[in-house]
């Protein structure tokens, strides 16, 4: 009877902890829920236990970009946390603050607070990279390590600024779904687009979930991002850089430049992958992350 009482007490405590976090726990150890953060309602997924690892998606995607990474990384001993930035995926945002670089960074840090995570390996893909840099400038003590995935530290050139402004205008005129054809040709290689239509559909469906306001806000973040090259020289935590060999948005040269400016960083270039290498070649990306993360203390 005493054993049964102890078991029930433990179960009640576990369920209460989940309820306080606003989530539900699935059979595979995956917790999913919503948190009211800085005026927005942020959707998150947490899977596994052990060293926390927060992964931030790019534009105009959601945390489901990492659906092929969570289980493998969790099985290797990590608590993998993904969020949908405000206005993307299942998250919502107030009209007064649809999103900015500082807001995305503050949202992510607050999610860590609300989930009881003091320090984590923090990674970002594409737009997630500038967000990670902003988080590091704001709270470097929260980082155990850093992962930069198909991203860039340079500010946007005039050409790139106009590209993102065009994306915002297109979303306003024709809706979020109109961005998918334009973006998918860069996210996935031609080989994948021709022969793995399921991958195309997954990313297309994710792009369609974003709100128009989020598409505009994210495009503005990318167009006006600050120069983070000086920040690279201040990074003292272990850093992994992952790059798709066929990335045409931010080609390997930019990752090589980051690697040269971050002391002790490691660069892994994945063949047969474009801008969404973390999704397109998930197995290779998972191996790279696990091999590197085992060296992080």
TrEMBL record:
Q: Please state the span of the N-terminal signal peptide per the UniProt entry.
A: 1-21
Pfam families xrefs: Abhydrolase_1
UniProt source species = Deinococcus carri
Q: Which domain of life is it from?
A: Bacteria
Q: Which gene encodes it?
A: bpoA2_1
- List each copy of the AB hydrolase-1 domain by range: 52-282
Q: What is this protein called?
A: Non-heme bromoperoxidase BPO-A2
UniProt xrefs under PANTHER family: HYDROLASE, ALPHA/BETA FOLD FAMILY PROTEIN, NON-HEME CHLOROPEROXIDASE-RELATED
Keywords from UniProt, A to Z, are: Signal
Q: Which InterPro entries match?
A: AB_hydrolase, AB_hydrolase_1, AB_hydrolase_fold, Epox_hydrolase-like
């Amino acid at each position: 009877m005493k054993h049964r009482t102890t078991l029930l007490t433990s179960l009640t405590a576990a369920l209460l902890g989940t309820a306080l976090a606003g989530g539900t726990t699935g059979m595979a150890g995956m917790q999913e829920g919503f948190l009211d953060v800085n005026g927005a309602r942020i959707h998150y997924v947490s899977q596994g236990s052990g060293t926390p690892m927060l992964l931030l998606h790019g534009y105009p995607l959601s945390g489901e970009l990492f659906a092929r990474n969570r289980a493998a990384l969790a099985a290797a001993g990590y608590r993998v946390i993904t969020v949908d930035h405000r206005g993307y995926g299942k998250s919502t945002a107030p009209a007064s603050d649809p999103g900015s670089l500082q807001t995305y960074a503050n949202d992510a840090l607050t999610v860590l607070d609300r989930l009881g995570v003091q320090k984590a390996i923090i990674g970002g893909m594409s737009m997630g990279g500038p967000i990670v840099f902003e988080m590091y400038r704001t709270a470097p003590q929260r980082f155990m390590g850093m992962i930069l995935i198909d991203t860039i530290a340079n500010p946007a050139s005039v050409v790139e600024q106009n590209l993102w402004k065009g994306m915002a205008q297109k979303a306003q005129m024709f809706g979020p779904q109109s961005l998918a054809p334009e973006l998918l040709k860069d996210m996935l290689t031609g080989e994948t687009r021709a022969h793995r239509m399921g991958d195309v559909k997954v990313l297309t469906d994710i792009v369609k979930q974003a709100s128009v306001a989020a598409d505009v806000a994210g495009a503005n973040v990318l167009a006006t991002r600050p120069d983070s090259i000086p920040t690279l020289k201040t990074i003292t935590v272990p850093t992994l850089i992952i790059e798709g060999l066929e990335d045409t948005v931010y080609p390997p040269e930019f990752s090589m430049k980051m690697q040269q400016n971050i002391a002790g960083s490691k660069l892994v270039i994945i063949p047969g992958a474009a801008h969404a290498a973390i999704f397109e070649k998930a197995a290779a990306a998972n191996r790279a992350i696990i091999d590197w993360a085992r060296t992080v203390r």
